[in-house]
Specification:
The protein has 12 helices and no strands. By secondary structure, the chain is mainly α.
Length: 270
């Protein structure tokens, strides 16, 4: 399921994102009932999406979490499209916007990529929001600004930096998608990864006995030995299920190759 941001009224969405022209909260009726606010509605919507996925998001569902009707929410946020924009930008406030000043651009980019990966694993629904049309909110821009600052330290020209932004974000998001999918697969399908592979590997070998001859490159790669085990999110040896371990190790190796490419581009400068 892919969701496109920025589907609501442009002025309404941007006004709410940047907290410009925000109408004051109104009382819903007599009595001590707490007032709603844009921030409270967004927080409830984020909690809902974190727990149940973006498919469960609706104004009614968010209202129920707050003990209100969907109509009560419309006083603050025009609709679900604007709410999604607000949610997306709000969670990006979690990301660090500064790293210690250092000449070690590689270490800084490695730390940045790790933060972005874990952010998306915490909020997997964010991965369903397409990057084709940005939200244009302040926290999204702060994250972009942070990456540009880190890339500036490489000394590469602006045109290359723009393309690196367009390379690094999709790479990290794709890696986070692999980790998130690895975590969700067993719960979504009702079978463990071990059970799934055992059943299908046996069937594949029975039905395709000449697999190694038909796909020699793949077979040789598998036969050349296992990759080094991933040490855990904090390098502390905590065990991880095999698919998540593989996804994280792929991220680590792939990021290293990308950074090697940046180093090579720096070396080719006049």
């Amino acid at each position: 399921m892919v969701v496109f941001a920025g589907q609501g009224d442009p002025r309404s969405s941007l006004s709410l994102l940047w907290r410009a022209d925000t109408p004051p909260p109104t009382r819903g009726g007599p009595g001590p009932r707490p007032r709603l606010s844009v921030d409270a509605i967004v927080a409830a919507a984020v909690a809902l999406a974190d727990e149940e996925g973006i498919g469960a998001l609706s104004m009614r569902a968010v209202g129920e979490r707050l003990g209100r009707t969907a109509m009560a929410l419309y006083t603050y946020i025009p609709g679900k499209s604007e709410l999604l924009d607000l949610m997306y930008d709000a969670v990006h406030a979690e990301l660090p916007t500064g790293y210690p000043e250092s000449d070690d651009w590689r270490a800084a980019l490695t730390a940045w990529a790790g933060e972005i990966l874990e952010f998306h694993v915490r909020h997997p629904w964010v991965l369903q929001v397409s990057q084709a049309r940005p939200v244009l909110g302040p926290h999204e821009y702060a994250g972009l600004d942070t990456l540009v600052v880190l890339l500036r330290a490489t000394g590469l020209e602006a045109g290359v930096l723009r393309r690196l932004v367009g390379t690094l974000f999709p790479f990290v998001r794709g890696s986070a998608q692999a980790v998130a999918d690895a975590r969700l697969a067993a719960a979504a399908t009702g079978s463990s990864d071990e059970e799934w592979w055992a059943a299908r590997s046996a069937a594949l070998m029975e039905l395709v006995p000449d697999f190694a001859e038909r796909f020699p490159a793949v077979s040789r790669l598998e036969a050349e030995g296992p990759v080094e085990p991933y040490p855990g999110p904090a390098g502390n040896g905590d065990p991880l299920p095999y698919p998540e371990r593989e996804a994280r190790e792929t991220f680590r190796v792939g990021l290293g190759v990308l950074l090697d490419g940046i180093e090579a581009a720096r070396a080719r400068r006049p």
